[in-house]
Amino acid sequence: MEVNLNVGLKHKEEKTVTMKDTAKAFGSGAALVFATPMMIGLMENASMNSVEEFLPEGFSTVGISVDIKHISATAVGKKVWVESELIEIDRKRLVFKVDAYDEDKKIGEGIHERFIINEKEFMNKLK
Known about the structure:
This protein is α+β, with helices and mostly antiparallel strands. The protein has one domain: Thiol Ester Dehydrase, Chain A (Roll), CATH 3.10.129.10. It contains 3 helices and 5 strands, in the order βααββββα. The chain has helices spanning 23-26, 36-51, 119-124, and strands at residues 10-16, 59-70, 79-90, 93-102, 106-118.
């Protein structure tokens, strides 16, 4: 497997917060604000999408670790985005710095790790 990845690769994902993205809807809290699990999911998505085009056919990545702080709340209707940066490559292990923002401020930050997998072999191990 040959992978053409370089440290410094960046990617951005964004969305507008809806009622289904809230802590109350997700079941992670009672507030009608952007849920921490939804923010983490957006962070994982940005990291995953940043490398997909550089992987051979039949290969993908899976999340293996998150170390995230949700530092500020975001109201329904606000646009949020995540910026990911590939900061370390250790064979098949990829480490990303992730930062989340809304229209007014930084809302989250942390480190996310992913592992490159052969999709068919990975799924066969589950049988």
